[in-house]
Amino acid sequence: MPALRIHQFPCLADNYGYLVHDPDSGLTASIDSPDAEAIERELAGQGWKLDYILNTHHHADHAGGNLRLKQSTGCTIVGARADADRIPGIDLMVADGDSFTLGRHAARIIETPGHTRAHVCYLFEADRAAFVGDTLFSMGCGRLFEGTPAQMWKSLQKIMQLPDETRIYCAHEYTQSNGRFALGLEPENPALRARLQEVAALRAAGQPTVPSTLGTEKATNPFLRPASPALRAGLGLASASDTEVFAETRRRKDRF
Ligand code: ZN
Ligand code: FE
Fold it and tell me: Is the pTM here over 0.90, yes or no?
């Protein structure tokens, strides 16, 4: 089975658009619809026709292009059943553990509440590609607009169970500022220092820092590292629970 093709492009201020294409069936899905015009342009550039939008959550920079794209392409809109009333034009409702297939490529739906109450991620397992929306960013995580720290930590733990080589496709290029925050918490982390150098070089060359891999995130992302003794010591939370350490890390990032 030929691999999925993933076409990535920047849009809006700092979003990434993704078109996922199965060369066998010719089917194409857009992960979210941040910018309908940009998505139409990229589809034309690839010579692909849009069959699906896979929504991660209802925010305007993720679902704002749904209705226009549905009208212009007749695509089917997939989103969380638990948020059906907030996903414009939803056709197909999914929940945790469901599977969506693009041709013969299966994506497992992982519910990750926290950023919003019904955020979902799409994991193309055979392709080792996870589209995580605003749940996990490179060296960061989404703000807790509708969920509690305990909920978000549980959601991130679901992602942490995936294989380390899983490519993490997040929805925003926030990596460099996330990295500055991370370095303040773990200044001696060698993996973090190496990643920051790599990120600085990529950005200086106008290149995306996304996708990273789950292995890299586990080594560098403070939101996946509440077990780190150095991070705990820096926060003054040596013997707190992982959830408490995660919550304090998120609080500090909100003020950063
Ligand atoms: Zn969002
Ligand atoms: Fe967003």
Answer: yes
The environment of the single-atom ion ligand 1, i.e. residues with CB closer than 5 A, is 59, 134
Question: In this structure, is residue 192 part of a structural domain?
Answer: no
- Rounded to the nearest angstrom, the distance between the alpha carbon of 188 and the centre of ligand 1 is 31
> Is residue 158 included in any domain, yes or no?
yes
Q: How far is the CA of 91 from the centre of ligand 1 (A)?
A: 21
Check if the beta carbon of residue 19 is closer than 8 Å to that of residue 35.
Answer: no
What separation in angstroms does the CA of 108 have from each of 7, 96, 197, 249? Answer: 20, 8, 33, 29
Where would I find the beta strands (DSSP E) of the chain?
5-11, 15-21, 28-31, 52-54, 76-80, 92-94, 99-102, 105-111, 120-124, 129-133, 136-137, 140-141, 167-170, 212-213
Tell me if 227 is assigned to some domain: no
**Which residues constitute the domain of residue 150?**
5-175+209-221
Considering its fold, how many domains does the chain have in total?
1
Residue 67 included in any domain: yes
Give the tens place of pLDDT for each residue, 67-122: 999 999 999 999 999 999 999 999 999 999 999 999 999 999 999 999 999 999 99
Residues in the chain: 256
